[in-house]
Structures
1.
Amino acid sequence: MNKVPHHIAIVMDGNGRWASKKFLPRVAGHRQGVDSLRRCVSACGQRGVRVLTVFAFSSENWNRPAEEVSGLMDLFVMALGRELPQLQADGVRLYFVGERRNLSVKVAASIELAESATRGNARMILNICFNYGGRWDIVQAAARVSAQGRPIDEASLSSAMALAHVDDPDLVIRTGAEQRISNFLLWQAAYSEFFFSDKLWPEFDEAELDCAIQEFARRERRFGRTPEQLDGPSPCAKLGSGQG
Ligand code: FPP
């Protein structure tokens, strides 16, 4: 099968549990998570995935212990600086998706630098959802559309969403053996396929990515239509028609 998703989105869950298993502080798990993300960006690029979106820090993550939050902020700034040359060499364009108003000057500056430095890259897009929540996104889009005096409908909201620069994700992966969406891409994942991995994020490797892509290739995406309405034969064509 050669059906590679154009856009993969990932909830990188399990860093804390990975660290606990090794009797390490939680931030050591996040550090390992950055290594896993680097490997994943490169593996996605090699497989022809054009857009990768990752959930790095949610609107709700501020409620974690102060030490973990500040550790994550420091790690974020450090990792961005360190990874930038490789991202440039690989032609990866970075976008930060989320509320920027309450970020520290240091974090905001490193985000702006990374975005402007990679602006000319066109091989792959990496969206980093940071201080992001799906509900926040819908609310900010509605506020923008109404401030422009436009009617609120699907097209106007879609164009004001934080990920309006890319198509909706084809495949959403969540690691860490949890099966929920956790306020990630509530609008954009309406017709995404989901793949839940038992691997903790620091353990997520090329083999597990390939499992997710192979599973995606086996799925029949109907977008609300019946199997009979779809073109060509499909391995799932005999299955009943749900909401699709
Ligand atoms: C969830 O695991 C992970 C996070 C909240 C942070 C993920 C962030 C990174 C991998 C770093 C990103 C860095 C850059 C530069 C993009 P968890 O802590 O909820 O794990 P648990 O469920 O085992 O507790």
2.
Amino acid sequence: MEFIKVNPQHEKHIALIELNRPKELNALNRQLMLEIRDALRELDEDDNVRVIILTGGTKVFAAGADIKQMANATAIDMLNIDQFSTWDQIKKTRKPIIAAVSGFALGGGCELAMTCDMIMASETARFGQPEIKIGTMPGAGGTQRLTRAVGKVMAMELVLTGKFISAEEALEAGLINRIVPVELLMDETLKLAREIAKQSPVAVKLAKEAVNNAFNSTLDEGLVFERKNFYLTFASEDQKEGMAAFVEKRTPEFKGK
Ligand code: DAK
């Protein structure tokens, strides 16, 4: 891996992916995105991993797709490269992914954070979709995910002016889970990851799928989907263990089975 560092066992059951292209502010070139895709595929299949953290480190999350790499591309180049398979892999990952954001999360960087399931931010985090300033527009879900997260009028303002918002504004708008001091970003993100990693991996997977389905269905369809996943948890040993542990007043030991 040239542009990311991956540690499948950063902690028990918690994997860490760190973007590592600091001189270019972690600009997402094609190679970096392919590396993220491959890492996520492997971590999703690794039974020891229950939660994945994706971070750019303490200085910058990602300043967007690599403008220098895209600058002279034709529409047909973009079509043929088919970068969307990479983004689709992020969306398809069944284990929870937490983005830990410090500094700029712009354009594709903001889209990358929003494609994750939760966003922890440091007080230095800045979010934006500035593609309009370079004569284009968001292409990896920005107009859709941002709008769903913060509502139409704020999404319009961000997408049409390219302005950045602070961590406080992002929190108020519902884009992120919380703000923590920069030096505590990883500790606080790990705390959240641990809370999830101690639950039943089967139930977590099914619940994540059901929450995501809320964006793709009517309420009635979503409720039917939720019900089926709920029934399915009763086919797991983890559900038997979780309820037995409650009755016996002990901590459950979930196995993901
Ligand atoms: N691409 C390439 N290089 C970048 C970059 C980027 N997005 N952002 C920064 N860099 C490079 C700079 O060119 C500079 O390189 P050198 O000149 O040192 O060689 C180095 O990183 C440091 O940047 P600055 O000198 O500019 O640093 P400042 O602190 O002064 O400014 C900044 C930081 C983040 C405000 C500024 O760098 C900036 O405005 N960057 C561009 C932000 C931006 O416009 N982002 C959106 C890019 S478009 C798709 C998927 C995704 C996308 C499209 C399609 N498909 C699946 C098809 C996404 C598109 C985008 O994200």
